[in-house]
Design brief:
It is a single chain. It is built from seven helices and no strands. By secondary structure, the protein is mainly alpha-helical. The chain is rod-shaped.
Length: about 240
């Protein structure tokens, strides 16, 4: 029996040819190109991010400036409105003072005429001075645009006493005894109607609400500074119900 033939040895792998200098140069160039592309991409992304960040910062600054300008313009408009309101109230106050001076002069003439009647020596002098009183009573006093009701009532009471005295020829009382009471009432009514402090307080200009430089806070302060409107019961002259 013949022996089997020996197995063939495994094939030896072929040795790759050595890399030439040109191939090494191309491979190095490829790596450099890849690295350069990555660097360019990273640098471009950073530049884009920086650009958009600058644009966002600029937009935020512009928005903040616009808000600041809007708040300043609103404050200026409110201050201008407050200034106009104060000027209108000052003009109203000047008009009230002018009417006050006219009223004071008319009340003084009325009081002088009534005093001449009350301090007359006798009936004949009362008759002589009655014409002066009626000239004021029927004329000048009625041109006052803001005639006080108290003065109106007091002058009517004095005229009624004068009319009764003149119609009673048998009245032997001294004029001062007859007219002293209505004269005092007339003087008190004129004095009350010429209360300058009350007039100035009534027509005093309103002070603008303080400004703290914060638009929303200033608006809240102005809202709280506004006087509350009267209740329906107050408009009817009735007291408000007690709070529980």
């Amino acid at each position: 029996m013949s022996e089997p033939a020996p197995a063939a040895p495994p094939p030896v792998p072929a040795t790759p040819p050595a890399e030439t200098a040109e191939e090494k140069l191309k491979r190095r160039q490829f790596y450099l190109n890849v690295v350069s592309a990555v660097v360019l991409l990273v640098g471009g992304a950073a530049s884009v991010y920086q650009y958009f960040a600058q644009q966002q910062k600029l937009a935020n600054e512009q928005l903040a400036q616009q808000q600041k300008d809007t708040a300043a313009r609103r404050t200026a408009e409110e201050n201008e409105g407050a200034r106009r309101e104060i000027e209108a109230e000052l003009r109203q106050r000047e008009l009230a003072l002018m009417i006050y001076r006219e009223k004071k002069e008319a009340y003084a003439v009325l009081m002088d005429a009534a005093t001449d009647v009350a301090t007359a020596k006798d009936r004949a002098e009362v008759e002589a001075n009655a014409g002066k009183y009626y000239a004021v009573y029927l004329g000048r006093i009625h041109i006052i645009p803001d005639l006080d009701q108290g003065v109106q009532d007091a002058k009517n009471a004095f005229e009624a006493r004068l009319r009764v005295y003149r119609g009673d020829a048998n009245n032997s009382q001294k004029p001062l005894d007859v007219f002293s009471s209505p004269l005092v009432d007339l003087a008190g009514a004129c004095q009350k109607g010429l209360d300058l402090n009350k007039l100035l307080q009534k027509n005093a200009p309103k002070q603008p609400a303080p400004s703290f430089g914060l638009p929303f806070f200033d608006a809240a302060v102005r809202q709280l500074s506004k006087p509350k409107p009267p209740s329906p019961l107050a408009l009817l002259g009735l007291p408000d119900p007690p709070k529980p």
